[in-house]
Amino acid sequence: AIARTLWRKKIPVHVCRMSYSSSVPTTKLFIDGKFVESQTSEWIDIHNPATNEVIGRVPKATQEEMLAAVNSCSKAYSAWSDMSILSRQQIFLRYQQLIKDNIKELAKSITLEQGKTLADAEGDVFRGLQVVEHACSITSLMLGETLPSITKDMDTYTYRLPIGVCAGIAPFNFPAMIPLWMFPMGLVCGNTYLLKPSERVPGCTMLLARLLQDAGVPDGTLNIIHGQHAAVNFICDHPAIKAISFVGSNQAGEYIYERGSKNGKRVQSNMGAKNHGVVMPDANKENTLNQLVGAAFGAAGQRCMALSTAILVGEARDWLPELVERTKNLRVNAGDQPGADVGPLISPEAKNRVNSLIQSGVDEGAKVLLDGRNVHVKGYENGNFVGPTILGNVTPNMKCYTEEIFGPVLVVLEADSLDEAISMVNNNPYGNGTAIFTTNGATARKYTNEVDVGQIGVNVPIPVPLPMFSFTGSRGSFRGDTNFYGKQGIQFYTQIKTITSQWKAEDATLKSPAVTMPT
Ligand code: NAD
Questions:
Q1: For residue 393, what are the contacts with CB-CB under 8 A and spacing of at least 6?
Q2: CB 386 within 8 A of CB 351
Q3: Residues in domain Aldehyde dehydrogenase (predicted)?
Q4: Closest C-alpha to 499, from 160, 78, 85, 141
Q5: What is the SS3 assignment for 335-380?
C-alpha cells in the first residue's frame, strides 16, 4: 500500500526504500540447497507492469554470496557428475511431472511480474517443459561413439562427459522457457549450474528451483544468484565456471560473449532480432493475416521471434487495410483479465522507448495506420500499455526498421518481387527468424534456400524449433558456435573423451620397443 501511494505521488519508490522495506516480499537467493535472505544493502524493485505497483524486491547479491554460490556448485560437482545417468534421468522425469502439476501457479507468477496474458504465460511454461521432457532422453542423447578393430586387437570409443560448473544469464521476456533452456540441459549432462535470472522477473525461476529440489536434486547442484552488472561480471570472470549460456539484448550479449570468451569459457549468446514475414500474393489470405496479427502483437511484441516486420509483395499490398481491421479486434488489458490479447510492456522505460520509436517512424515519413500510443485501459491507468500499432510506408533506412522495437508495433514494407524481399531480409543485420506465406512450393523453396536467417517458417509465423532440434538464430542474433538445446545443446554442455584400447592375446605381446609412429 505504501508503494502504491508513492507511485501515485510519482515519488520513485527506491528513493524511499527504508520506509516500506518490511512490507514488500523479498526474493531469496538459492545457495547450497537453501532459500536464503541476502545480506546486501542494494535492492531492486520488482513491479507489476499492469499497475506499476511494487510487488517485491530482488537483491544485488554480495561478492561473498556469489562466491558461496559458485563454491557450492564446485563442491556438488563431483557427486552429481558421478551419479548414474539413470538416477539423473529419474530426477528429471519427476521434475517434468512437477512442472506439469504446477503450470497454473508458474503462469500466475509470470503474469504478475512480466505482464503477459495468463494463456500466453502457460505457453511460456509449456515450451520450457518440453525441453525438460527432452532432457529425460539423456540416456540416448549422451551416447558416445565406438569403432571396434581399428587395428588388430584395438578398439576406439568415446565418452561424452560433463564439463564442470556452468552458468546461465536470462532475459525478462520468457521467465520460464528460457531458464528451462538452460539449467535442465546443463544439469542432466552432469554439470552443476549457477543461474542468474532477469532481475525484473525472478519469481518464476524461484518456483522452478523449488520444484527441482522437490524432484530430488542434491543440494548445491543448482545455485541461484540475483543482480545486474556485478553478477554478470562475476559469472564472466570466475575461473570455476566453464560455460555461459546467455539470452538477451545485443548490448549485453556481445559484452558477455567477449568477456567470457577472453576468460577461456564456452559462451553461447542468443540476442536481438528483427523478424520479417514475407507475404506473397498467392498466400492463403485468411490464414496469413491471422498468423501475422498473432505473431506481431502476441506477448505485446516482446518475443525474440515476434514477426515485427511485414513485407507485402506485389498485390499482397492490397491486404493492408484488412490487416489493420483485424488488428483492431485485439483487446488490450492486464494479463490476468479475461479476454486480454495484449498485455503491458515490462516497464515505463520500455513504453517510452516504443512510443519514441513510433514517433521516429512518423518523423521519417512512415504512415501510422493504427496508433496504440494513447490506449486507455480502464482500471489500469498506471500500466505500461501500448496498443497494437501499424506503421505503413516504412523503408529500410528508417530507425523504426533498423532498431529492434520489442513492442506491439508492426512495421510494413513493400516489395515488387520475391527477390527484392529476399534482399531486404538479407541486408538486415539480424538473423533470428523469418516466415514466408505462400501456396507455391517453388517460391517457398527459393526463399528458404536464399535467406540468410537461422529459423524459417513456411506458413508458420513463429518457427521456434521443438527441443529435439536446436534454437538456431544466426548472424547478428547469435554469438558462439553451438546453439541452445537439441543435439547442439548437449554438445555445448559436454566434452568428449576418446579411449583407444588394445587387448592382445598373450602370444602377441610386443617383443621390443616400437619407436616409429604407429600406422
Ligand atoms: P537484457 O540484455 O537487458 O537482459 C538480459 C540479462 O542480461 C539480464 O539478466 C540482465 O541482468 C543482464 N544485463 C542487462 N544489461 C546488461 C549489461 N549492459 N551488461 C551485462 N549484463 C546485462 O535483455 P532483456 O531486456 O531482458 O530481454 C530482451 C532482449 O532479449 C531482446 O533484445 C530480445 O530480442 C532478446 N531475446 C533473444 C532471444 C533469442 O533467443 N535470440 C530470446 C529472448 C529474448
A1: 365, 366, 367, 412
A2: yes
A3: 35-499
A4: 160
A5: CCCCCCCECCCCCHHHHHHHHHHHHHHHHCCCEEEECCCCCCCCCC
Number of other CB atoms surrounding residue 417 within 10 Å: 10
Question: The complex's ipTM?
Answer: 0.99
* 402, 436 Cβ separation under 8 angstroms: no
Residue labelled with grid coordinates 524461484: 206
* β 43-47/54-59 pair status: antiparallel
Could you give the CA distance from residue 426 to residue 428 in angstroms, rounded to a whole number? 5
pLDDT class for 6, splitting at 50, 70, 90? very low
pLDDT of the residue at 489: 98
**Measured distance CA(239)–CA(27) in Å, rounded:** 27
Mean per-residue pLDDT of the chain: 95
- CB 309 less than 6 A from any atom of ligand 1: no
Rounded to an integer, the average pLDDT of 452-457 is: 98
Distance (Å, rounded) from C-alpha 326 to C-alpha 504? 76
> Does residue 252 have its Cβ closer than 6 Å to ligand 1?
yes
Asked if residues 498 and 156 have their Cβ atoms less than 8 Å apart, the reply is yes
Ligand 1 contact, 260 CB (< 6 A): no
pLDDT at 16 over 50: no
Residue type, 490: I
What is the Å distance from ligand 1's center to 30 Cα? 22
User: Mean pLDDT over residues 34-42, rounded?
Assistant: 98
CA-based end-to-end distance of the chain: 79
Ligand 1 geometric centre to CA of 252 (Å):
6
User: In the structure, what pLDDT confidence band is assigned to residue 1 with cuts at 50, 70 and 90?
Assistant: very low
pLDDT the model gives residue 516: 87
Spot the catalytic one: 73, 189, 204, 304: 304
pLDDT, tens only, 63-102: 999 999 999 999 999 999 999 999 999 999 999 999 999 9
Active site residue 136: no
